Amino acid sequence: MIKTSVIAAFYNNITYLKLVLAGFERQTEKDFELIIADDGSREEVVKEIETIGSNYSFRIKHIWHPDKGFRKNKILNQSILASESDYLIFIDSDCVPHCKFVEEHLNERENNKVLTGRRVNLSQKLTNMLSEEKVKNGFLESNNLLMLEDALFGKSNYVEKGFYFENKFLRNVFNKKQRGLLGCNFSLYKSDILAINGFDERYEAPSIGEDSDVEFRLGLNGVKVKSLNHIAVQYHLYHKLQERLQKNLDLFDDVKKSRIAFTPFGLKK
Predict the structure, then answer these.
(1) 267 located within any domain
(2) Strand partners for 38
(3) Count of the separate structural domains present in the chain
(4) Which one, 115, 151, 205, 224, has least CB within 10 Å?
(5) Measuring CA to CA, which residue among 205, 201, 218, 200 is closest to residue 248?
(6) Is there a contact between 43 and 17 (Cβ–Cβ < 8 Å)?
(7) Average model confidence (pLDDT) for the chain?
């Protein structure tokens, strides 16, 4: 059995996906599969994924369903069922991983814990500077000063999250604070997400459903969040952020009131 299945939520942006795949090509931990959880990309995008799938040293699976609006949680659930490892890492396909990303998620895994890292939000300027070759050569990891400069004079933010620490003391210092689960950067044993019946598919808009809801229901089962700040690092490629919709907040309020970990709207209906 492979060590881990990386599940990457995806929709249409093949240019960003290639940058993310370039980041996984240079991982220090090689024993993983990558599952593209495709929420209904166009036919030409699907064909291109099929074309490039054999270009990488790791195995790629492409899980797709028709575009019927935002159904990220549904395709994530299908990808869980398609995974071949007992440990899962969840990312978004606009987040390029640090070269130690997979290794650190695996090294830090614990029973009854869901691990969550953090990400740098790159500006449009820095995002436009990237190429697959630059990512493969470690451009993002070796240009912290450039990111700091861009944060001061441009639009990158949370650039301090891009500093990767190997020192145990620094890791402990920067992870004392309790942090919430980040939907684009978390991992857990498959058994733990199966125990809550996966993602709640009623969330049909971005945010809440792929992180806050999951964190809450895992917590009801005694699974606690473990922070990997400055350990599991990502670089988020620029795009306009989507606003939280009130219907997601209302649904989450109902979930919190019910205090039921196992959603009836998940993997098993």
Answers:
(1) no
(2) 10, 64
(3) 1
(4) 224
(5) 205
(6) no
(7) 95
